[in-house]
Amino acid sequence: MTRIRLLSAVVLASALAACSGGGGVTTASLLGTPAAQPQADEPSERALHSASVAARASKCGYNFNPTKLRESFLAAEAANGATPEQMTKLGQSYDFTQTTVSKQISNPQEYCTEQRTRQVSTDLQKQLAGDFRAPKKPALPASAGWWDTASSQKAMDREEIFNPKHSR
After folding, report:
1. Which strand (E) or helix (H) includes residue 50?
2. What is the rounded CA–CA span in Å between residue 120 and residue 57?
3. C-alpha dihedral over 13, 19, 22, 25, to 10 degrees?
4. What pLDDT band is residue 29 in, cutting at 50, 70 and 90?
5. How far apart are CA 75 and CA 82, in angstroms?
6. What interhelical angle do 66-79 and 43-59 show, nearest 10?
7. More confident residue, 131 or 162
């Protein structure tokens, strides 16, 4: 009987030791952490955004000068203190992105929906006015761990769980 107790204690201790290797529940995961703040846009993000707007606007039939927009973007980056090396990389990134996005939009009639056209128009107007800021990315919510209820406030529905076709 004592051997069984001793063996049980050793197995339990081993199991608990194996579980303490990390990745488990911590006070931080129970209490949560503050949400991460969105990062400020970088020159490379602005180049990607500006080039994609230029390509999308060209494909959707907007009448503007894409070369002049590129030059305005690069002039704005130079005014923001970009080094000559950074300017070369930004120009290459801009050109590559504009070419790639243009190739991806093979059928402008399908791509240029009313909603996309409105968004492209808004973005193009901002850029023609000299505002080359990339849109802010929303901060991802911090997960508080397994028992985090902030991400799912919906109550479980027995019919939906056991009969998925019921919810459709």
Report:
1. helix 43-59
2. 6
3. -110
4. very low
5. 10
6. 170
7. 131
For the chain, how are helix, strand and coil distributed in percent, rounded to 5?
60, 0, 40
- Could you tell me which residues come within 8 angstroms of residue 56 by beta carbon, excluding any fewer than 6 positions away? 101, 105, 111, 116, 120, 123
Identify the band that residue 136 occupies on the pLDDT scale cut at 50, 70 and 90: confident
76 close to 132: Cβ distance less than 8 angstroms = yes
Residue 87 has pLDDT above 80, yes or no: yes
**What residue has token string 């911090």?**
142
For the whole model, what pTM was predicted? 0.60
Domain ranges of the chain: 43-128
Side chain identity at 102, as an amino acid letter? S
- Contact between 48 and 89 under an 8 Å Cβ cutoff? The reply is no
* Distances, alpha carbon 117 to alpha carbons 53, 60, 73, 113, 166, in Å: 11, 7, 22, 6, 37
Q: What is the dihedral of CA 57, 59, 63, 66, to 10 degrees?
A: 70
